[in-house]
Amino acid sequence: MAPLAGEIEARLAKVGIAGETREFAPHLTLARFDPPGISDGLSAIAQENEAREFGTVRTGDFHLFESKTKSSGQNTARLASFSFAPAEA
Predict the structure, then answer these.
(1) How far is 20 from 44, CA to CA, in rounded Å?
(2) Percent of residues in the chain assigned helix, strand, coil, to nearest 5
(3) Per-domain residue ranges of the chain
């Protein structure tokens, strides 16, 4: 997964978006509510890729985080962790 993150950062750098300074930690952000809404450009990109296959990832745990943006920066706290039961053979 880290090579994908590196490729994304390299492509974003070409259009003037600075890279992340923190160590890579794979995650999925489901929603952000401030400000609400989605730009027309991002909506168009999402629609163009709605049938795209993004691959498979296996994991044994799921962690629920809360992320809040403050004037001092991003504040992230782990709210709960869940272990997945092994698949029945």
Answers:
(1) 25
(2) 25, 25, 50
(3) 2-39+56-83
For residue 38, the Cα-to-chain-centroid distance in whole angstroms is: 16
Residues 6 or more apart from 63 whose CB is under 8 A from it? 78, 80, 81, 82
Reply yes or no on whether the pLDDT at 1 is more than 60. no
For residue 60, give both structure tokens.
């044994």
pLDDT digits (tens, 9 = 90+) for 13-59: 888 888 888 888 777 776 665 676 777 877 888 899 889 988 887 88
Closest CA to 62 of 30, 23, 15, 33: 30
CA trace torsion 39, 4, 73, 59 (10° rounding): 100
DSSP 3-state of 81: strand
